[in-house]
């Protein structure tokens, strides 16, 4: 609500001006009938509630001006105690209206004949004059209220700006920084004492080019006063066609990476103590891995699927001084070849049709100061193998469509379940990359070759799944344990975990017995009585190829064998040659 008290000085000056112009006493009251200003005898009575102010109350209620030329005899004076003894000769009262509300009254009072004559001789022009004075005061009161509201809103907006997790810069059309929030000040080290331009703070050429075109910009920009990279979004502020400035938001790229790490990694921190190892092979492997963990050496972990390659890589990262930075994994075999390059190395804005505005960080950049785990490196296409080799040699990455290379400090741990050495022989894997990766080779033996680990792993998964399912399965019968110990575990530890989960879920009692083991374990290949050669990886592979070829031939489609096996046709033909699988062996048997 607009109030005359907020503009007390203006009200007093107005009262004095009216009094000087008309040579008559003036008083101005607020909406609650408190005298805000007064001249002559009234000047000492400001700030007090008026008594017997029946005329003013009527004006406040009706919103209409009143002229009383016979005080004490007018119907409005009827309730007044001084009725009949009134000292006033005449009175004029004009309401003060602000946006539909009545916020006060201007009162003129004459105390002799001469004043009365002056007051009443030209009523119309007097009322017009008073109306203008009332309008002036109302405008001032409205302006004062609007300023107060604007200040409040500015204060609220500044609080919001300072509360945001992004740095915010506002600029004018000349790139002068007109406003910034606390975070922007900290991120860019903006000097508080002198005004800054965008040019002094950011390497902003590309950003400003977009702003000038009236386009939104998103991308990475380097700081000028600080050595940081920022992820910026800039939105032009336009007035019609004219660009009048921009709003720029800033995110510290290092901070984003830390957030990525926090969001993706904290739950799966792995320590060496979590790698279960009873067998001599695993104990020895853990020893070697613990020794190489603190170094920056590139590592290659080989082993069948499910043997714990990723688990080992995580433990190595966790034991290195990179542990506070990201451990980024990428499964090179699971990502379509045409997307793999940009996943690994990122791309710059406009690198290809459909490229995201502002480009995209690659996994190598995300892993800066940390570790990148290149899973299934054996599935990496040859042209990307060259790029990986270059990163390992030069420690810089080049984004797809990028003009400059970016320095990265990344430890590479690669893993594969394929025989990279024979892939090198067949030309499927680059020899130079193989030797680069294989600086320190780590081999995880398949579970069937380290049966001593089986009981310990079973106990671990029993406890885990009993807890997860809320069942109190406490152990396993000797017969069930014997069956599991003789099983060949083609899926290794991952499969063992699944088997225990199945059995815990199925078993009604406190112990897992043989009948609650999955059928494939009961019927599947048992390692004990079988000839040792059948456990050989190569003979298993040969067997699988023969089976796939037979199945495909039965369907009249030889090509389908590669699909069944999940390998390329070229690899299939190479393996047929390698294992000397003759047509009649396959098709005529
Ligand atoms: N020695 C071990 N102790 C405890 N858990 C293990 C061990 N080895 C493997 N695991 C568990 O087995 C599962 C499979 O492990 P992981 O994913 O590391 O295998 P991998 O060799 O990387 O598999 P793939 O080649 O299929 O990617 C995980 O749940 C892992 O925690």
Automatic annotation (TrEMBL):
| Highest taxon listed in the record's lineage | Bacteria
Task: List the CDD domains.
Answer: AAA
| Pfam families attached to this UniProt entry | AAA_lid_14 (PF25601), HTH_8 (PF02954), Sigma54_activat (PF00158)
Q: List the keywords (alphabetical).
A: ATP-binding, DNA-binding, Nucleotide-binding, Transcription, Transcription regulation
Protein name, as recorded: RNA polymerase sigma factor 54 interaction domain protein
Report the residue ranges that make up the Sigma-54 factor interaction domain in this protein.
275-505
GO BP terms: regulation of DNA-templated transcription
Q: Which GO molecular function terms does the record list?
A: ATP binding; sequence-specific DNA binding
PROSITE patterns named in the record: SIGMA54_INTERACT_1 (PS00675), SIGMA54_INTERACT_2 (PS00676), SIGMA54_INTERACT_3 (PS00688), SIGMA54_INTERACT_4 (PS50045)
Against InterPro entries, the record matches this protein to: AAA+_ATPase, AAA_lid_NorR, GAF-like_dom_sf, Homeodomain-like_sf, HTH_Fis, P-loop_NTPase, PAS-like_dom_sf, Sigma_54_int
């Amino acid at each position: 609500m607009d109030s005359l008290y907020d503009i007390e000085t203006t009200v007093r000056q107005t009262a004095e001006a009216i009094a000087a112009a008309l040579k008559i006493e003036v008083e101005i009251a607020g909406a609650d009938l408190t005298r805000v200003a007064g001249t002559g005898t009234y000047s000492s009575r400001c700030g007090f509630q008026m008594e017997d102010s029946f005329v003013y109350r009527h004006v406040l209620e009706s919103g209409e001006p009143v002229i009383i030329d016979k005080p004490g005899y007018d119907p409005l004076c009827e309730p007044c105690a001084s009725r009949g003894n009134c000292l006033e000769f005449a009175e004029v009262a004009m309401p003060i209206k602000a946006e539909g509300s009545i916020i006060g009254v201007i009162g003129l009072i004459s105390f002799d004949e001469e004043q009365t004559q002056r007051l009443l001789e030209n009523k119309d022009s007097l009322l017009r004059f008073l109306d203008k004075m009332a309008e002036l005061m109302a405008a001032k009161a409205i302006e004062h209220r609007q300023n107060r509201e604007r200040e409040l809103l500015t204060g609220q907006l500044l609080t919001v700006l300072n509360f945001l997790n992004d740095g915010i810069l506002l600029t004018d059309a000349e790139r002068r920084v007109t406003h910034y929030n606390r975070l922007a000040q900290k991120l860019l080290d903006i000097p508080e004492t002198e005004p800054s331009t965008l040019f002094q703070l950011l390497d902003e050429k590309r950003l400003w080019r977009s702003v000038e075109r009236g386009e939104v910009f998103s991308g990475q920009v380097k700081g000028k006063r600080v050595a940081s990279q920022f992820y910026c979004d800039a939105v032009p502020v336009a007035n019609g066609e004219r660009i009048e400035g921009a709003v720029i938001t800033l995110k510290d790229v290092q901070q984003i990476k830390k957030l990525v790490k926090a969001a993706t990694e904290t739950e799966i921190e792995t320590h060496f103590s979590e790698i279960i190892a009873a067998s001599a092979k695993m104990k020895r492997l853990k020893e070697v891995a613990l020794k190489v963990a603190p170094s920056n050496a590139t590592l290659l972990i080989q082993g069948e699927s499910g043997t714990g390659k990723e688990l080992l890589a995580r433990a190595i990262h966790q034991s290195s001084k990179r542990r506070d930075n990201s451990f980024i994994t990428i499964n090179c075999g699971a990502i379509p070849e045409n997307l793999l390059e940009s996943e690994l190395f990122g791309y710059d804005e406009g690198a290809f049709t459909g490229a995201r505005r502002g480009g995209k960080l690659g996994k190598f950049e995300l892993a800066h100061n940390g570790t990148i785990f290149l899973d299934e490196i054996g599935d990496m296409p040859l042209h990307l193998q060259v790029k990986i080799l270059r990163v390992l040699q030069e420690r810089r990455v080049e984004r797809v469509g990028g003009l400059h290379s970016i320095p990265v400090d990344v430890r590479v741990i690669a893993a594969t379940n394929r025989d990279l050495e024979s892939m090198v022989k067949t030309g499927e894997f680059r020899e130079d990359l193989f030797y680069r990766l294989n600086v320190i080779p780590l081999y995880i033996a398949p579970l069937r070759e380290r049966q001593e680990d089986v009981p310990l792993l079973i106990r671990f998964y029993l406890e885990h799944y009993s807890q997860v399912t809320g069942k109190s399965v406490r152990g396993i019968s000797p017969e069930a344990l014997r069956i599991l110990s003789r099983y060949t575990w083609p899926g290794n530890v991952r499969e063992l975990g699944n088997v225990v989960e199945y059995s815990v879920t199925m078993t009604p009692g406190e112990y897992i017995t043989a009948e609650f083991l999955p059928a494939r374990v009961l019927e599947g290949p048992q390692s004990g009585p079988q000839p040792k050669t059948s456990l050989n990886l190569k003979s298993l592979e040969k067997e699988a190829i023969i089976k796939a070829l037979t199945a495909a031939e039965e369907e009249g489609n030889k090509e389908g064998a590669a699909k069944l096996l999940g390998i390329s046709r070229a690899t299939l033909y190479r393996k047929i040659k390698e294992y000397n699988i003759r047509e009649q062996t396959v098709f005529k048997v």
